Amino acid sequence: MKLSLIDLKRKLKIIGREAVTMALKVGIQLYSVRQSLKKEPFETLEKVAAAGYKYVEAANHDALTDDGVGFGLSAKKMKDALDNLGLSIVGCHVNPLKLERLPAVLDYHQELGNKQIGCDIEFYPYEDMDYLLRRCELFNKVGEMCKERGMRYYYHNHYQEFQKFGDKKVYEIIMENTDPNLVFIEMDTYWITRAGENPLNLIEKYKDRLVLLHQKDFPKEAPQPIVMYDGIIDPDKEITYPMFEDTKAPECFTEIGTGILPIQDIIDTAVTAPNLDFIILEQDHSSLDEIDSINTSMKAFQKYSGIEWD
C-alpha cells in the first residue's frame, strides 16, 4: 500500500541518519490553570494529571525571588511532587530573565530535570533597533549559559514581534541576530495568526530552531477580527504591556480543538521539525472552570492525528 506524503511524514522523522517514529507528544502550559494553582497548587497538579496530561510547561513570573517554577519549593520537593503524579516538566518560562539570577535558576531546573527555559513577554516594547539588537545580545548570552549546562534557551512570540523596523519584522531581526545554536524558539501559532502571519510558513522556515509549539484556538464567533492589526492595534505604534492586556479580549479564546485554527495542518507541518517533540496546549482565558477547560481541550484534541499522549 502506498503512503501519502503526509502519512509518510507522520511515520518518519529524519534526524541525521536515524529514523524515528514521528508524532508530537501533547503537554499543557500550567498558565492555563494559574488561578487554580494559586488557590490549591498541589490539588491542581493532581487534577492536571487526572485529566491525562503527562507533560507540563511551567510559567514562573516571580523569578526575582523564586528560582524554580513558581511554587516556592526546593527542586527536590518539586521533583518529588511531579514524579508522584507521573508528570514531566518539558520547559519553563522565566520572568523576569536576569543574567545575575540565571545561575540559581539553571541550578534549580537541572535538579528538577528540566532541560530548557524560555522567556516571552517581558522584552517588549521594542523601542528602536538599538534596543532590539541589545536584546539579541542578551538572548545569545542566556543561550550560552544554558548550553554550558547542557540545556536550551527558547524565545516565545506574541503578535508584537511581527511589527516592522524598516522593511523587516522584529521576529526576522531576532532570528538573524541570534545564534541558532544558542537561541531556539517556541512558536505560538495563535499569536502568529493574530499577527496576520501564516504559522505553517514560519514553522517551515524556522523548523530547525523549533523546540516547543504552543497551540491555542480562536472561536468561531468572536468580538474581534482574528488579526490584531485589523483595526484593534496600530502596527506602527509602540505596543506596551498594558496595551497588550487591555486589548486581549477573553472571548477570543476557546478550548483547543473547538475553534477555527487549522490545527491538523499545523501538526502535519510541525512533525517534520527535527528538534520538536512537544505540542503544548495553552488557554489564556475561558468561560469554563479552568479544570473543565483543560479537560475539554484534552477531549477535543484527541481527534487529531500525528500526536501521542504517553
UniProtKB/TrEMBL annotation:
Any one Pfam family match given in the protein's UniProt record, by short name: AP_endonuc_2
Keyword field contains Isomerase: yes
GO molecular function, one term: isomerase activity
Keyword annotations from UniProtKB, A to Z: Isomerase
Ranges of residues in domain Xylose isomerase-like TIM barrel: 45-301
Keyword Magnesium (UniProt): no
InterPro entries hit by this protein: IolE/XylAMocC-like, Xyl_isomerase-like_sf, Xyl_isomerase-like_TIM-brl
Annotated protein name in UniProt: Xylose isomerase
Biological source species: Lederbergia lenta
